[in-house]
Amino acid sequence: MRPLQYRTIWLAGGILLVLAVILGSVAPSVRTPLGNDKLTHLTAYLALAVWFGGVYRPARYPWVAAALLALGGGIELVQGMLSYRSMEIADMVANSIGVLAGILLSWILLGSWCQWIEARLPGSR
User: Fold this and answer.
1) Which domain does 96 fall in, by range?
2) Is the CB of residue 21 less than 8 Å from the CB of residue 52?
């Protein structure tokens, strides 16, 4: 992990985001906020990858990517078992593109966003 003063808060936020993705994925189908199902998948997994890219060091990015890809695949398998949802390979592709784009963005530009925010908080170390 990165040296973060508010590590627990950052991890809790990430867990809440993961739970939101899980709940949104297994709840009965509704209109997607972005109007396009695949764009919603891509954006959700990009956001998760950038979030955890800010919490973990770049050496852990392959593990972050693997965990998020497993999450997306697992959710699709669960959706295949639900009568009101369906498993779609295209969703897994969109999830994967989002994860890879988020990891790449973290590696190149956004990886230290948590540290950047913490450095600007009142009373920071």
Assistant:
1) 7-120
2) no
